[in-house]
């Protein structure tokens, strides 16, 4: 109305109305956004897939082959060359353990402690040498290991345990097991052949009697050894073979007076020394071989002199043997001789003094 008595709208009312309209517009827009988000949720980046855990190839089993011993023994950085033989030399009271080549060239000194160290055994990887030390005074023996380059040596164990009262011989299997011949009494009337670890833990007795130095088969499953029926051990006895796990009874392989067998690296042949009777002289000993699968009479003589040839040891490739030779039982100067596996090309190596048992490869 524009006539008299009509009322005019106030400015505050108009501003309030405008504000309410604006609020309604904002609320309506906001509610639209909410419902849009409910019906169409925003896409979020997928969570990163955690990377698959890194996998490593399973560790290889410890070597049970000529790769080397599994024990933490002293080892040289490099293996001995295949033509190197480890042997104990002594000139008077001067004892050394050294290498000598198959052609007679003296190599490095492995050990020179001044003690009575004997019977070296080269490891399959040719980086370690085991040896026996005769303890003085008394009738005790300890087993030691030295790196083949002479850099480190260590005592492994001493005899005197119930399983091995008096240690006399040690041989070394490809899996690191030791074959040990132990004297059961101080008189030496009975011996035991058993297996042990390099820390001296005795594992198993394989035979008891007048037993000499054994040799393992290349695969470590069998052990071959001489055993005399009675009397003196000095001239050996028949050779026997048995399984290292004790699953079989010892079986005679060949008769005769035999000592110092050595199983060839090929596994097909054994070498040993055989005493023969010769009237009017000391019984000589010949180095002979026998096929593992052959008959007992298939023995082949590699030497046939009237001297005493003992302790043969095979070259790593099985083509040659080294042994020591004495003129007779009273000879105090033993010499090293190398011969082919067929008995040809025999040659004596020049040396000073006398020698102990050579080790070209492990027994």
From TrEMBL:
Task: Output compositional bias ranges, type Polar residues.
Answer: 354-363
Q: Which family does it belong to?
A: Belongs to the TolB family.
Q: Where is the composition biased (Low complexity)?
A: 54-70
Species whose genome carries this gene: Microlunatus antarcticus
Region of interest: Disordered? 46-79, 343-363
Protein name, UniProt field: WD40-like Beta Propeller Repeat
